[in-house]
């Protein structure tokens, strides 16, 4: 029986080793430290969010240690009561030390700690041993004793692994001695190629199924393994996960074990509706002040990371929470969404006065765009670089165009809305893919303006796309009136309208987006093209574009609020097929009209918008007073609730009436109660 159990364990080990993908860098670091004969105390800090594969990787570290004939001891904090005696007892039991002798030392933790250190020294082969401390976030108060008393007794040859959801912080980092011993090893989600390798090992090799699973799991190992299990189980009866929809609540529960506090869970839900957030945006969305203490608790969780403009929930968790909220509390979710629309509306409106298109403008399109826009262009963060055409990259540009013409093929765009599971499918034919290049003459465009043609490079520097966007001003208008594919539109304009477009070069009237060419089947490149287009769209000018008569492009233009030009088409792509122009005129006050039109589509009336703008004039304390005034509280009651004097409250009320342009409490209540 024992031999049979051992064989099963060995087979499980073999299979787990086979399915370990995408962790080559982490394994290299471990082997390097394992083979270092001159180490003076090394700590590997392995950390990452729930389900990212920490325990799976620890098992691989164990296998590698055993292969090198080096003992590996794994202590999981969930396996014993968390105090020094129980820790030492558990460790010694793992090392097969007589338990009766351990109990005799219960009253003297110092001697028990020294006994553990001695036994570890004896167990070490050639001075080497690996000690892993798993689920470290649950060690709690035991952490101080481990750092200050236990680990200091170990010999320098012991390689310690501290594995948990969060990186080591506090005294681990502030102490120079500990800091120099720590080798940080963050675990991220798997990249696409690793996911593809994992699926291939599981017998899933179809490209469409691979991309579908990649889109839904975002490379999160736990979700990936559950998806594979469900996919394989559908081939035979199973009573575990009946379908893929059961996977996401399970993953959410796994993550949210970190968040027992209901107030912080409320913040997590609000953060899921936002794409990126900070303390101020959360306060606005929730319509109440989020304290600094609450915010610091929130961003301390493993599934939240810092980004350039704030903080971000893990993509998969955000998608799963939103999906769950839409079914559980649809009205509450809808209210949070409208608050997001309103928040970014106010920021975009402010940017109009500053004549500056901010990052918030691009974010606002995420909320006002329909599900097609969010699904196609806002699924994950992208990194790309635009590089103007120049003699130094001219050959690369010509090579890109030549390769597009030589290797053109039909493009299938298939993507699923993670919130609703609605599937989008579009086909761009070979001919349609090349229409944008039909009238492109690099030298002609370069002579007109060196910044018209741009190469799109990915994070690795590879040219993966090209754009041609012509500014409209006095220096380009004659060209636009006479050359395809622009001429038909500009020839249709009256003299007065053409005169409006003949602006100085340093004050352009708008853009003609001739093409943004990428591999639209590739999610990352599709998002790159979409965000580039949206950035120009929100530049407070006229934007004109044209595209083949294809539902993919036309659906995008209409979703973004573009209008089809009346009574004007061109035949520059195909002599037999009329091709329309699409226009978004956001010059001057027209941008505000566009913003208001899009906001109105969400049922956010203008009075609410004006009211919110006025509320932004108030200080945080004045907003607190307004909330209590609306509830009908007297000055005396408000003073008691806010721990202020009644005279201070009277002063606040006077300032509030002036800023909000109201003359009485009744008027205030009628205006802002909703």
UniProtKB/TrEMBL annotation:
GO-annotated molecular function: DNA binding
Keywords annotated in UniProt: DNA-binding, Transcription, Transcription regulation
CDD domains linked: LuxR_C_like
Pfam families: AAA_16, GerE
PROSITE patterns (UniProt xref): HTH_LUXR_1, HTH_LUXR_2
GO biological process, one term: regulation of DNA-templated transcription
InterPro entries assigned to the protein according to its UniProt record, in alphabetical order: AAA_16, P-loop_NTPase, Sig_transdc_resp-reg_C-effctor, Tscrpt_reg_LuxR_C, WH-like_DNA-bd_sf
SUPFAM superfamilies in UniProt: C-terminal effector domain of the bipartite response regulators, P-loop containing nucleoside triphosphate hydrolases
Domain HTH luxR-type: 611-674
Protein name: HTH luxR-type domain-containing protein
Originating organism: Paenibacillus nasutitermitis
């Amino acid at each position: 029986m024992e031999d049979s159990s051992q064989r099963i364990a060995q087979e499980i080990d073999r299979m787990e080793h086979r399915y370990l993908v995408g962790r080559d860098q982490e394994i290299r670091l471990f082997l390097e430290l394992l083979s270092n004969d001159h180490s003076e105390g090394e700590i590997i800090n392995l950390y990452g969010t729930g389900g990212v594969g920490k325990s799976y990787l620890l098992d691989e570290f164990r296998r590698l240690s055993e292969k090198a004939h080096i003992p590996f001891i794994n202590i999981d904090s969930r396996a014993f009561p968390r105090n020094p005696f129980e820790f030492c007892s558990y460790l010694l039991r793992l090392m097969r030390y007589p338990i009766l002798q351990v109990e005799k030392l219960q009253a003297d933790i110092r001697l028990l700690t020294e006994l553990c250190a001695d036994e570890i020294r004896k167990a070490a082969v050639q001075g080497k041993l690996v000690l892993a401390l798993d689920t470290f976030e649950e060690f709690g108060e035991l952490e101080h004793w481990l750092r200050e008393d236990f680990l200091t007794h170990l010999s320098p040859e012991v390689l310690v692994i501290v594995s948990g959801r969060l990186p080591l912080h506090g005294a681990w980092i502030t102490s120079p001695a500990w800091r120099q011993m720590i080798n940080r090893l963050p675990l991220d989600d798997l990249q696409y190629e690793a996911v593809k390798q994992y699926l291939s090992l599981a017998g899933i090799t179809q490209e469409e199924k691979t991309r579908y699973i990649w889109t839904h799991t975002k490379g999160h190992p736990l979700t990936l393994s559950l998806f594979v299990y469900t996919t394989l189980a559908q081939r035979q009866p199973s009573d575990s996960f009946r379908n893929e929809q059961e996977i996401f609540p399970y993953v959410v529960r796994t993550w949210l074990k970190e968040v027992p506090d209901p107030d912080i869970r409320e913040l997590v839900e609000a953060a899921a509706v936002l794409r990126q957030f900070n303390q101020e945006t959360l306060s606005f969305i929730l319509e109440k002040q989020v304290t600094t203490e609450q915010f610091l608790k929130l961003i301390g969780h493993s599934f939240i990371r810092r980004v350039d403009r704030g903080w971000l929930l893990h993509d998969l968790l955000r998608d799963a929470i939103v999906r769950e909220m839409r079914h559980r509390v649809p009205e509450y979710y809808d209210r949070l969404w409208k608050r997001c629309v309103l928040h970014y509306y106010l920021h975009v409106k402010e940017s109009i006065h500053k004549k500056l298109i901010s990052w918030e403008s691009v974010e606002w399109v995420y909320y006002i765009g329909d599900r097609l826009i969010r699904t196609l262009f806002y699924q994950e963060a992208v990194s790309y670089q635009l590089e103007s055409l120049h003699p130094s990259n001219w050959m690369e540009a010509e090579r890109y165009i030549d390769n597009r013409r030589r290797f053109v093929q039909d493009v299938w765009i298939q993507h699923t809305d993670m919130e609703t599971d609605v599937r989008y499918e579009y086909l761009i034919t070979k001919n349609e893919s090349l229409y944008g290049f039909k009238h492109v003459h690099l030298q002609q465009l370069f002579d007109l303006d060196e910044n018209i043609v741009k190469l799109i490079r990915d994070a690795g520097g590879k040219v993966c796309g090209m754009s041609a966007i012509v500014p409209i001003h006095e220096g380009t208008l004659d060209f636009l009136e006479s050359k395809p594919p622009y001429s038909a539109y500009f020839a249709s304009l009256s003299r007065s309208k053409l005169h409006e477009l003949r602006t100085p070069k340093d004050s352009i009237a708008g853009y003609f987006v001739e093409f943004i060419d990428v591999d639209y089947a590739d999610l990352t490149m599709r998002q790159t093209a979409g965000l580039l287009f949206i950035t120009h769209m929100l530049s407070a000018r006229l934007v004109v574009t044209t595209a083949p008569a294809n539902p993919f492009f036309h659906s995008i233009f209409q979703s973004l609020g573009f209008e089809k030009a009346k009574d004007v088409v061109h035949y520059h792509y195909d002599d037999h097929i009329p091709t329309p122009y699409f226009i978004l005129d956001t010059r001057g006050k027209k941008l505000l009209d566009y913003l208001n039109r899009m906001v109105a589509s969400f049922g956010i009336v203008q009075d609410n918008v004006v009211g919110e703008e006025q509320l932004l004039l108030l200080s945080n304390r004045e907003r607190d007073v307004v909330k209590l005034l609306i509830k009908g509280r007297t000055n005396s009651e408000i003073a008691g609730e806010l721990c202020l004097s009644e005279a201070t409250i009277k002063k606040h009320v006077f300032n509030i009436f002036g800023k909000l342009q109201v003359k009485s409490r009744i008027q205030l209540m009628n205006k802002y109660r909703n």
